[in-house]
Amino acid sequence: MPHLSVLIPVKDGMPYLKSTVASTLRAMPRDSELLVLDDGSTDGTGAFLAGLSDKRLKVFRNEQSAGVAAASTALLSHASGEHVARIDGDDICLPWRFAVQRRALDGVDMVFSQALMINAKNVPFKPRFEPGISAEAMPLHLMLTNVLMNPTMYASRAALESLGGYQATPAEDYDLWLRAATAGLRMRRIPRLPTIAYRRHQTQLSQTRAWSDENGDKILAESFSKLAADRIGFHGSASTVLYNRPAAGKPYPEDPDIAEFVRCMMEAASRLGENDRRGVEARLLASYRL
């Protein structure tokens, strides 16, 4: 049984998929497998994958696209490694990624990291790396925004399988993190060190499906509501909190649910250690322009 299964769901991944696969295979340990699901591509993705020969590589295909959530869950069902990692088909895996994250998984169920941002021509943007987030503080940070990058995930396969995979929502990754936190899974983000080069380009899926624009996303709102009730005792409207971000430079909209959410968050943050408390309060104050 391989120790690590790396998952790449991809649709129309050319030309970037070539560097994703090559860099991932170079970084992977010997006791690992790379699982790629071609989710109904109509470009040269299928032909490229068919031409590869590496005993660690397993390729699957959907004739019709099932979407990233279903494709990711299908790949998880094929994984046999003790650990599972994700990367998107347009990113680059940095050489030290899996060694660093394997060590960082000690004591937690899921590990995430920073990313070096690059453009379509592999030119990096000015680096901006944030501090780490502890497992104790992670549920509170997640109720303020999605602080975790899906293509940097490294996790216990048993932990992911306990959640049943991704749900059919445009914010399938954020929804999974919220459910993981509610289930008591421990997640941490390691500080500053990037493990992938994350490519920003006009055709990438995440550019067209920001979770904060999905006002009708009842699945995400339900997952948020369960975590907020469980961790901070908030029972107001999850949709009000999720989908009423103010315009830049303007105060947060006055609403009793928002005021109650902020009160519950501040009270929960006060029970954390000093460094964790400061991190949560800083994000809370910046988000709500208090």
UniProtKB/TrEMBL annotation:
GO terms for molecular function: glycosyltransferase activity. Keywords: Glycosyltransferase, Transferase. The keyword Kinase does not apply. Residues 5-135 form the Glycosyltransferase 2-like domain. The keyword Glycosyltransferase applies. CDD domains: Glyco_tranf_GTA_type. Pfam families: Glycos_transf_2 (PF00535). PANTHER family: GLYCOSYLTRANSFERASE (PTHR43685), GLYCOSYLTRANSFERASE EPSE-RELATED (PTHR43685:SF5). Belongs to the glycosyltransferase 2 family. This is Glycosyl transferase family 2. It comes from Arthrobacter oryzae.
